[in-house]
Write a structure and sequence with these properties.
Length: about 250
């Protein structure tokens, strides 16, 4: 018994205490970000565009893009612009195997759409007057590229969607799949991205008007989300709400 206790004590000494992803401060919880670094992430401030959720000037309901162009979803919300710490976290989650980052990011996404009563002061309602989670039937994610999943062993958007679903007490369903591989989207002109993705996604099973909360890591041109919405609508799913960690510029 004594011997075992000694071994256990030795192991405790060997395991490094968890440290903040950004500043290396020792952490007291499982959250890989310390409260200060989490607070420092770039975030949209109110007011936000009612449709796509990015920050807009006071007195304006819609951003420039949403004012001139219809969106394929009912509403989207993102934490902030794709820059600084948010960009760093998303890249680490997507490309560097830092799966643990899905948890804090997923929790922040849930806060974004939860009624204010559960999170103290502040008005972060998804879309007034209804708190969104009560409208949603299932949580889904943009479908992964099978080749990339084989290489990395996971799909960042799915990790996020599962965290969101669990936190909201809603089912996660992998309703979409990719029909054919598509070239990497980064650095390609918008028109090219739109054409490359056309018809690339398909629903695994028909829907019956379910309201879907579609989760992605970052919205760049919106081409991926648009294609996912098209596939869901075609299969008979109902309203689609989009939730992503960050929103890049339109171009
Ligand atoms: Zn920190
Ligand atoms: Zn907008």
């Amino acid at each position: 018994m004594l011997k075992l206790e000694g071994v256990a004590a030795g192991l405790v000494g060997l395991v490094a205490p968890p440290r903040c992803f950004f500043c290396s401060a020792p952490l007291r919880s499982l959250n890989p970000l310390c409260p200060d670094c989490e607070e420092d992430l770039p975030r949209w401030q109110d007011p936000r565009c009612l449709v796509c959720g990015r920050g807009v000037e006071e007195g304006i309901d819609l951003c420039r893009e949403c004012a001139v162009e219809g969106r394929p979803y009912a509403a989207a919300r993102t934490l902030g612009p794709y820059e600084g710490g948010l960009r760093r976290l998303i890249q680490a989650l997507k490309y560097e195997g830092e799966r643990a980052l899905a948890r804090p990011l997923g929790h922040l996404l849930v806060e974004l759409i939860s009624p204010p009563s559960t999170q103290g002061p502040g008005n972060r309602k998804f879309i007034p007057p209804d708190p969104l989670p009560s409208l949603v039937d299932l949580v889904a994610c943009v479908p992964p590229d099978p080749v990339r999943v084989r290489e990395r062993g996971y799909h960042a958007a799915e990790l996020l969607a599962r965290v969101v679903a669990r936190r909201l007490g809603l089912p996660f369903r992998a309703v979409l799949r990719k029909r054919r591989p598509t070239p990497p989207q980064v650095g390609r002109p918008r028109e090219e991205r739109l054409t490359a993705l056309q018809g690339a996604f398909v629903a695994r099973r028909p829907g019956q008007g379910e309201t879907v909360l579609l989760v992605d890591d970052v919205i760049t041109t919106g081409a991926t989300v648009a294609e996912a919405c098209r596939a869901l609508a075609e299969a008979g799913y109902g309203d689609i709400y989009v939730l992503a960690c960050a929103q890049a510029g339109e171009d």
